[in-house]
Protein backbone atom coordinates (compact mmCIF):
# COMPACT_ATOMS: atom_id res chain seq x y z
CA UNK A 1 0.00 0.00 0.00
CA UNK A 2 1.17 3.56 -0.74
CA UNK A 3 2.68 5.70 2.02
CA UNK A 4 0.11 8.43 1.31
CA UNK A 5 -2.97 8.31 -0.93
CA UNK A 6 -4.81 11.60 -1.49
CA UNK A 7 -8.22 11.41 -3.13
CA UNK A 8 -10.00 14.47 -4.55
CA UNK A 9 -8.81 16.85 -1.84
CA UNK A 10 -10.33 20.25 -1.17
CA UNK A 11 -7.75 22.52 0.46
CA UNK A 12 -8.04 25.83 2.27
CA UNK A 13 -8.17 27.56 5.63
CA UNK A 14 -10.79 29.24 7.84
CA UNK A 15 -13.35 27.14 5.99
CA UNK A 16 -12.51 28.80 2.65
CA UNK A 17 -11.60 26.42 -0.19
CA UNK A 18 -8.70 27.61 -2.36
CA UNK A 19 -8.06 24.40 -4.33
CA UNK A 20 -10.20 21.41 -5.31
CA UNK A 21 -9.71 18.05 -6.94
CA UNK A 22 -6.15 17.30 -5.81
CA UNK A 23 -5.27 13.59 -6.04
CA UNK A 24 -1.92 11.81 -5.86
CA UNK A 25 -0.08 8.83 -4.38
CA UNK A 26 3.29 8.68 -2.62
CA UNK A 27 5.18 5.40 -2.64
CA UNK A 28 8.15 4.52 -0.45
CA UNK A 29 11.30 6.01 -1.98
CA UNK A 30 9.52 8.59 -4.16
CA UNK A 31 10.79 12.14 -4.60
CA UNK A 32 7.75 14.33 -5.23
CA UNK A 33 8.08 18.02 -6.07
CA UNK A 34 5.00 20.19 -5.63
CA UNK A 35 5.02 23.18 -7.97
CA UNK A 36 2.55 25.91 -8.88
CA UNK A 37 1.92 29.61 -8.68
CA UNK A 38 1.91 31.53 -5.38
CA UNK A 39 -1.40 31.14 -3.61
CA UNK A 40 -2.30 27.92 -5.39
CA UNK A 41 -2.34 25.91 -2.14
CA UNK A 42 1.07 24.21 -2.02
CA UNK A 43 1.89 25.06 1.60
CA UNK A 44 -1.75 24.52 2.58
CA UNK A 45 -1.54 20.99 1.16
CA UNK A 46 1.60 20.27 3.16
CA UNK A 47 0.07 21.56 6.39
CA UNK A 48 -3.08 19.52 5.70
CA UNK A 49 -1.01 16.34 5.26
CA UNK A 50 0.56 17.06 8.65
CA UNK A 51 -2.79 17.68 10.30
CA UNK A 52 -1.92 21.32 11.01
CA UNK A 53 -4.93 22.48 8.96
CA UNK A 54 -8.25 20.67 8.52
CA UNK A 55 -9.07 18.85 5.31
CA UNK A 56 -12.07 20.56 3.70
CA UNK A 57 -12.99 17.68 1.42
CA UNK A 58 -11.74 14.36 0.05
CA UNK A 59 -9.67 11.75 1.83
CA UNK A 60 -6.04 11.24 2.93
CA UNK A 61 -5.00 7.64 3.65
CA UNK A 62 -1.73 6.73 5.36
CA UNK A 63 -0.45 3.24 4.58
CA UNK A 64 2.58 0.96 4.80
CA UNK A 65 2.73 1.47 8.60
CA UNK A 66 3.27 5.23 8.21
CA UNK A 67 1.73 7.46 10.90
CA UNK A 68 1.57 11.26 11.08
CA UNK A 69 4.13 11.40 13.88
CA UNK A 70 6.66 9.66 11.59
CA UNK A 71 6.72 12.55 9.13
CA UNK A 72 9.62 15.00 9.32
CA UNK A 73 8.78 18.61 8.44
CA UNK A 74 10.95 21.54 7.42
CA UNK A 75 8.66 24.60 7.11
CA UNK A 76 9.47 27.97 5.62
CA UNK A 77 11.29 30.05 8.22
CA UNK A 78 10.01 33.34 9.59
CA UNK A 79 12.29 36.16 10.73
CA UNK A 80 11.45 35.32 14.35
CA UNK A 81 12.46 31.68 13.89
CA UNK A 82 15.76 32.66 12.26
CA UNK A 83 16.57 34.66 15.41
CA UNK A 84 15.83 31.78 17.82
CA UNK A 85 18.32 31.93 20.76
CA UNK A 86 19.08 28.22 21.22
CA UNK A 87 22.13 26.11 20.45
CA UNK A 88 22.32 23.94 17.33
CA UNK A 89 22.40 20.79 19.47
CA UNK A 90 19.26 21.84 21.36
CA UNK A 91 17.34 22.52 18.15
CA UNK A 92 18.33 19.23 16.53
CA UNK A 93 17.49 17.30 19.71
CA UNK A 94 14.03 18.90 19.81
CA UNK A 95 13.18 16.89 16.70
CA UNK A 96 13.02 13.81 18.93
CA UNK A 97 10.06 15.06 20.98
CA UNK A 98 7.49 13.11 18.98
CA UNK A 99 9.10 9.79 19.90
CA UNK A 100 9.36 10.43 23.66
CA UNK A 101 5.75 9.80 24.67
CA UNK A 102 5.17 11.11 28.18
CA UNK A 103 8.86 11.18 29.16
CA UNK A 104 9.91 14.73 30.19
CA UNK A 105 13.64 14.32 29.47
CA UNK A 106 15.72 13.19 26.51
CA UNK A 107 17.34 9.78 26.91
CA UNK A 108 20.49 8.19 25.51
CA UNK A 109 18.70 7.07 22.33
CA UNK A 110 17.47 10.59 21.51
CA UNK A 111 20.93 12.06 22.13
CA UNK A 112 22.53 9.36 19.97
CA UNK A 113 20.05 10.05 17.17
CA UNK A 114 20.63 13.82 17.31
CA UNK A 115 24.39 13.31 17.20
CA UNK A 116 24.08 10.92 14.23
CA UNK A 117 21.95 13.37 12.26
CA UNK A 118 24.30 16.27 12.97
CA UNK A 119 27.09 14.09 11.59
CA UNK A 120 24.89 13.24 8.61
CA UNK A 121 24.41 16.94 7.85
CA UNK A 122 28.07 17.69 8.61
CA UNK A 123 27.21 20.25 11.32
CA UNK A 124 28.78 18.55 14.36
CA UNK A 125 31.28 21.40 14.59
CA UNK A 126 28.36 23.82 15.04
CA UNK A 127 26.74 21.92 17.94
CA UNK A 128 27.47 24.56 20.59
CA UNK A 129 26.90 27.56 18.33
CA UNK A 130 23.83 29.74 18.76
CA UNK A 131 21.37 29.08 15.96
CA UNK A 132 20.70 32.75 15.22
CA UNK A 133 24.40 33.36 14.57
CA UNK A 134 24.48 30.89 11.64
CA UNK A 135 24.20 31.60 7.93
CA UNK A 136 20.98 30.77 6.10
CA UNK A 137 22.48 27.62 4.61
CA UNK A 138 23.77 26.43 7.98
CA UNK A 139 20.36 27.05 9.57
CA UNK A 140 18.64 24.94 6.91
CA UNK A 141 21.06 22.07 7.56
CA UNK A 142 20.25 22.32 11.27
CA UNK A 143 16.52 22.17 10.55
CA UNK A 144 17.03 19.24 8.18
CA UNK A 145 18.91 17.36 10.92
CA UNK A 146 16.05 18.19 13.30
CA UNK A 147 13.48 16.84 10.83
CA UNK A 148 15.48 13.63 10.43
CA UNK A 149 15.26 13.09 14.19
CA UNK A 150 11.50 12.81 13.74
CA UNK A 151 11.64 10.19 11.00
CA UNK A 152 13.74 7.97 8.78
CA UNK A 153 10.78 7.44 6.46
CA UNK A 154 9.48 10.65 4.89
CA UNK A 155 10.38 14.35 4.85
CA UNK A 156 8.13 17.28 3.91
CA UNK A 157 10.19 20.30 2.84
CA UNK A 158 8.54 23.66 2.17
CA UNK A 159 10.84 25.60 -0.22
CA UNK A 160 14.01 24.66 1.71
CA UNK A 161 16.28 26.74 -0.57
CA UNK A 162 14.27 29.97 -0.34
CA UNK A 163 16.60 32.95 0.14
CA UNK A 164 19.82 30.94 -0.25
CA UNK A 165 22.56 31.87 -2.71
CA UNK A 166 23.04 29.67 -5.83
CA UNK A 167 25.99 27.67 -4.45
CA UNK A 168 24.25 26.86 -1.16
CA UNK A 169 21.03 26.11 -3.06
CA UNK A 170 22.82 23.50 -5.18
CA UNK A 171 24.42 22.01 -2.06
CA UNK A 172 21.03 21.74 -0.33
CA UNK A 173 19.43 20.08 -3.37
CA UNK A 174 22.29 17.57 -3.52
CA UNK A 175 21.92 16.86 0.22
CA UNK A 176 18.20 16.14 -0.19
CA UNK A 177 18.95 13.95 -3.23
CA UNK A 178 21.43 11.97 -1.12
CA UNK A 179 18.81 11.43 1.60
CA UNK A 180 16.39 10.16 -1.04
CA UNK A 181 19.01 7.76 -2.39
CA UNK A 182 19.47 6.49 1.19
CA UNK A 183 15.76 5.57 1.27
CA UNK A 184 14.06 8.68 2.69
CA UNK A 185 10.89 9.58 0.80
CA UNK A 186 10.81 13.28 -0.12
CA UNK A 187 7.91 15.68 -0.66
CA UNK A 188 9.25 19.13 -1.53
CA UNK A 189 7.56 22.38 -2.45
CA UNK A 190 9.63 24.21 -5.05
CA UNK A 191 9.19 27.38 -7.10
CA UNK A 192 11.92 26.19 -9.48
CA UNK A 193 10.40 23.83 -12.08
CA UNK A 194 13.74 23.14 -13.78
CA UNK A 195 15.29 22.04 -10.46
CA UNK A 196 12.20 19.97 -9.72
CA UNK A 197 12.64 18.13 -13.02
CA UNK A 198 16.32 17.54 -12.31
CA UNK A 199 15.83 15.91 -8.92
CA UNK A 200 12.25 14.65 -8.57
CA UNK A 201 10.78 11.31 -9.61
CA UNK A 202 7.23 12.74 -9.63
CA UNK A 203 5.60 16.14 -10.07
CA UNK A 204 2.40 17.50 -8.55
CA UNK A 205 1.52 20.77 -10.27
CA UNK A 206 -1.28 22.59 -8.49
CA UNK A 207 -3.00 25.10 -10.73
CA UNK A 208 -6.47 25.70 -12.14
CA UNK A 209 -5.89 22.25 -13.64
CA UNK A 210 -3.88 19.90 -11.44
CA UNK A 211 -1.33 17.44 -12.78
CA UNK A 212 0.21 14.44 -11.02
CA UNK A 213 2.60 11.95 -12.60
CA UNK A 214 6.22 11.11 -13.29
CA UNK A 215 8.52 13.90 -14.39
CA UNK A 216 8.68 12.45 -17.93
CA UNK A 217 4.87 12.44 -18.08
CA UNK A 218 4.86 16.02 -16.83
CA UNK A 219 7.27 17.15 -19.53
CA UNK A 220 4.97 15.65 -22.16
CA UNK A 221 1.79 17.13 -20.68
CA UNK A 222 0.19 20.33 -21.96
CA UNK A 223 0.53 21.93 -18.51
CA UNK A 224 4.18 20.97 -18.22
CA UNK A 225 5.06 22.19 -21.71
CA UNK A 226 3.32 25.51 -21.09
CA UNK A 227 5.10 26.26 -17.82
CA UNK A 228 8.48 25.07 -19.10
CA UNK A 229 8.11 27.46 -22.04
CA UNK A 230 7.12 30.25 -19.62
CA UNK A 231 10.15 29.55 -17.42
CA UNK A 232 12.44 29.44 -20.45
CA UNK A 233 11.07 32.75 -21.61
CA UNK A 234 11.61 34.29 -18.16
CA UNK A 235 15.23 33.11 -18.14
CA UNK A 236 15.79 34.68 -21.55
From TrEMBL:
Residues 4-231 form the ABC transporter domain. Signal peptide: none annotated. One of its GO terms (molecular function) is ATP hydrolysis activity. PROSITE patterns: ABC_TRANSPORTER_1, ABC_TRANSPORTER_2. InterPro entries: AAA+_ATPase, ABC_transporter-like_ATP-bd, ABC_transporter-like_CS, Metal_Ion_Import_ABC, P-loop_NTPase. Keywords: ATP-binding, Nucleotide-binding, Transport. Belongs to the ABC transporter superfamily. This is Zinc transport system ATP-binding protein. It comes from Eubacterium oxidoreducens. The lineage of its organism: Bacteria, Bacillati, Bacillota, Clostridia, Eubacteriales.
